[in-house]
């Protein structure tokens, strides 16, 4: 993999601010040519440093008013299978393998309490899941993906 330099980091920073910014706009902001930005972005994509260009979605405007964090305690040897199963749910936006009190943390969005209830009961019925702890998000104070360079 090629070395990442300050120019690459500046481009990444601009894409974090606005993923739909044109190469021309980025080039003007950081003082290089549009071709340089194009080549650098392609290098970052090819090296899988930039993995995807995805929208930042306000789930509440789509009717998903409930966001939860669910801590999962599982039998160790079954954890990978449990996590794979959880990732298949369309309501789940993230599954993290973690240290500490829980073995995994799930981030998920639901339209109503009934959907959440069904999900949690289904999760508890999965072989190897010992217990869960559901935390309802009351307010989102900051939500960004990754480190802001």
Structure description:
The protein is of the alpha+beta class and 149 residues long. It has 2 domains: 6-46, Winged helix-like DNA-binding domain superfamily/Winged helix DNA-binding domain (Arc Repressor Mutant, subunit A), CATH 1.10.10.10; 59-136, Lrp/AsnC effector binding domain/regulation of amino acid metabolism (RAM) domain (Alpha-Beta Plaits), CATH 3.30.70.920. The chain has 5 helices and 4 strands, in the order H-H-H-E-H-E-E-H-E. It has a 4-stranded antiparallel beta sheet, with helices on one face.
Fraction in helix: 25-40%
- Label the structural class: alpha+beta
Alpha-carbon distance between the two ends: 20 Å
Q: Which of globular, elongated, flat, extended, rod-shaped describes the shape?
A: elongated
What's the number of structural domains?
Answer: 2
Elements, N to C (H/E):
HHHEHEEHE
Total count of strands? 4
What proportion of the residues form beta strands (DSSP E)? 15-25%
Mean of residue pLDDT values: 93
CATH topology of the largest domain: Alpha-Beta Plaits
Rounded to an integer, what's the Rg over CA atoms? Answer: 20 Å
Largest sheet: 4 strands, antiparallel
Nutshell version of this structure?
With 149 residues, the chain is of the alpha+beta class.
Using brief descriptors, characterize the structure shown.
Arc Repressor Mutant, subunit A; alpha+beta; Alpha-Beta Plaits; four-stranded antiparallel sheet; 4 strands; elongated; 5 helices; 149 residues; 2 domains; 36% helix
